[in-house]
Design brief:
single chain, about 240 residues, alpha/beta, Elongation Factor Tu (Ef-tu), domain 3, Rossmann fold, 6-stranded antiparallel sheet, 6-stranded parallel sheet, about 30% strand, globular, binds flavin-adenine dinucleotide, NAD(P)H-flavin reductase, oxidoreductase, FAD-bd_FR_type
Length: about 240
């Protein structure tokens, strides 16, 4: 674990409900794709957020859900905004979690994101691109509304330019003009794979989603030791 202070470089909306935060750490921060950091609001109050960027970049990127009803995120965001406005740094603990990308394997990969769980999945997907990955990758991103798919064009572009990368957005409460998949995102995975036995599966999203996905995937042949999610420690 690395403890350091960071400048809050920028806070900008990805959607009305999700903010992109860029932090510039005072010292280089070593972490693995898919790890999270804790934002220290006080010495006792620390909130985990997945790092959306990949190691080696000058900044650390976070995607923070920002609805007023979600105190977990809105208090963290308020802290970041206050520190930025008063030119004060924030304190983080980085390089946390065990659900990081495993690079030493050759299994095909399922990446499963629910809502802002996409931050974790995005870091892993970018790292696979950088490494010239040759493994088939199936990225599922489930959201309630279509407008929450804030990086849709980029992911569609990846999918159209790489034969081994598939992107499957899944909208729960779809508008009439939505042409893609609908329903719960883990159910789309269950529909698409007769067996999940061969796959490494990385999961992030709301805890209830991670729980039902884990149980359903196990029933569909997935191996527990090939499923990775830091939420497993909480549920
Ligand atoms: C280690 C760690 C890292 C975290 N990192 C972040 C972060 O980077 N950013 C952040 O904002 N928060 C983070 N959190 C907090 C928490 O995980 C998020 O608040 C949560 O993922 C937010 O989900 P959402 O509201 O965007 O998804 P929602 O909008 O609630 O759901 C998105 C999709 O998930 C599926 N889903 C939701 N509920 C269910 C269900 N009950 N059953 C089946 N499927 C369901 C559906 O497909 C739905 O469309 C983190 C927490 C931990 C422990």
């Amino acid at each position: 674990m690395i403890v350091t202070t960071c400048t809050v470089d920028s806070i900008s909306p990805l959607t009305p409900h999700v903010q992109r935060v860029r932090l510039v750490p005072e010292q280089p921060v070593h972490f693995l794709p898919g790890q999270y950091l804790q934002l220290c609001l006080t010495d006792e109050d620390k909130r985990p957020f997945s790092v959306a960027s990949v190691p080696g970049q000058a900044h650390l990127e976070l995607h923070i859900g920002a609805s007023a009803s979600d105190e977990y995120s809105s208090q963290a965001l308020n802290h970041l905004q206050q520190q930025q406005q008063s030119d004060q740094p924030v304190r983080i603990e980085a390089g946390l979690g065990h659900a990081h990308l495993r690079t030493e394997r050759d299994h095909p990969i399922v990446l499963l994101a629910g809502g802002t769980g996409f931050s974790y999945i995005y870091s892993i997907a970018q790292a696979l691109q950088q490494q010239g990955n040759n493994r088939p990758v199936f990225l599922y991103w489930g959201v309630r509304q279509q407008a929450s798919l804030y990086l849709l064009p980029e992911l569609q572009q990846w999918a159209s330019s790489q034969s081994k990368f598939r992107f499957i957005p899944v909208v729960q409460e779809a508008d009439d003009d939505w042409q893609g998949r609908t329903g719960l995102v883990h159910e789309a995975v269950l529909e698409d794979f007769v067996s999940l036995e061969a796959y490494d599966i990385y999961i992030a999203g709301p805890f209830p989603m991670v729980g039902v996905a884990r149980d359903a995937f196990l029933k569909q042949g997935a191996h527990r030791e090939q499923m990775f999610a830091d939420a497993f420690a909480y549920i």
